[in-house]
Task: structure prediction
Amino acid sequence: HIHDSLRQEREIVEVFTGSDSYSQGLSDFRMRAEHAREYIVIGGEAKDWYEFTKPIFPEHVEQLRKLKRAGVDIFILFYEQEKMSAEKYIRPYLRNPYVCKIAADACRLPQTSWLAGEYVYLLTPTTEPLVVSIKSKRLSEQYRDYFWKQWKTGKLLK
Result:
């Protein structure tokens, strides 16, 4: 019965708020990614996000390089409208640690999502952002299916 299996899964929601929300959210996400051996980002952030996270970004990339050396692939799926941001902010880190593709805007989700194992993180597109972490096997499976379908048709960022 689908009802029984739905009832058995306990979903957990955590919200990171305020000016530290990104650094706390990213740190939590990296921990989950290391444990799950999976680091997937769906959708790029706005230019403001990169400017806002500039102070913490180099350290984040260093941590990701450690994850990559430990055998965790670091995937980002951008959309056509985010290509300029991708080229400006992420291109310097291509292959070390990021592997990136650009997918069609028609399939774009309304928010950036991070995926690691049973955890899905949703980001609100503001400078004082919310990062919402949802532990849900079903939701993460749906996001993973979506990601791999888009990844197959996306063009590699070089």
Remarks:
- The mean pLDDT is 89.
- The chain is about 40% helix and 25% strand.
- The first helix runs from residue 2 to 8.
- The first strand starts at residue 12 and ends at 16.
